[in-house]
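In response to reviewer comment 3 from the previous cycle, which asked for concrete evidence that the modeling workflow produces usable outputs, we include below a single protein chain processed end to end. The sequence was submitted unchanged, and the resulting structure tokens are shown without manual editing.
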Amino acid sequence: MQQDFHRIKRLPPYVFAEVNAMKARARADGLDIIDLGMGNPDSPTPEHIVEKMIEAVRNPRTHRYSTSRGIPGLRRAIAGYYERRFNVPIDPERETIVTLGSKEGLANLANAITSPGDIILVPNPSYPIHPYGFIMAGAAVRHIPVGPGYDFMRELERAAKHSVPAPLAVVLNYPSNPTAQVVDLDFYAEIVEFCRGRGIYILSDIAYSEIYFDGDPPPSILQIPGARDIAVEFTSLSKTYSMPGWRVGFATGNAKLIAALARIKSYLDYGAFTPIQVAATAALNGPQDCVVQIRDTYRKRRDVLIDGLAQAGWQVPSPPATMFCWAPIPERFASLGSLEFSKLLLAHAKVAVSPGIGFGEYGDDHVRIALVENVHRTRQAVRNIKAFLADSDRMLAQYAAQRPAAE
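The workflow returned the following structure tokens.
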């Protein structure tokens, strides 16, 4: 019996699946694929964090159910982080909550605050959970185009003006995945003033706030006076401390939104495994030289990749933050779109990247390249791409010849 599930029907086919399937087939055939697609940190979690987890797991009392809001010590550590990093005082009881990563936190908040038909304003391109967390919750998403040629405030004003009903919330993500764009406090101040005057919540994702290379450290929207009246901020330990598989993050800010998230979570989970929370506490409270080392690792990879691609004839902007490069498709291949270009790059250069269309239609003229291979492998990827670009005439002719048969 065929079932039509409403929420599943609202999700489009997973764009990255096609490239992932090609990658899996190539590896099954014994080919060496350099995977610069998924943003999956490859560095080990710092040793003192791992040791604290091992110490905690040896205590059988930590094997019991944890608490959905997060253990008190970790919530105090989060408050301490905001005080040190942003000079923002946080009430650990009312204004922060531990989540199973920022992705889970945002999706659960979407379910907590969204009614069918509510309108959420989301940048495009954006990380998929930003729109689809709300789509799964029954909301209608209005996309705000971002990137060169677009003024975010003007687009936000236009979207809010022409939305019926008025928007419930706007999602922000800086430093941005996938575009690596960063913003300053003046940008946040303008957004807060606009949204406070219209009763629009702000949901800010700062998962990459500690992976920055140029200029000042990325700010928090909670540094803006009055932001806590309407804003909540999500972040994660995944990138900062190279802990992606641990699945621990937090949400901080507006007490009403935190309470709504806490209520939903109380029905859905018992919180992360207590030893993981203990280790996360050690990460936030302990020595931070490991964060500097992780940041330097990504900076070196970025420089090797950007310089190498420039020498190969592919001009890609150097990202000021994140672990991604947002690369415009080379002009010779621009008409193909990001998915077909990604497939060609995988087939002929043996390099996997993420097609920009997977982040929204305004991303289809770019691909996202993740800095997740060591310098040696990154240089190999650059050599492969250089040979691919040098042979572009043959590649395009072969593609054109095969295309009619494929269709």
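The mean pLDDT is 92. We consider this sufficient to address the reviewer's concern, and the full set will be provided in the supplementary archive.
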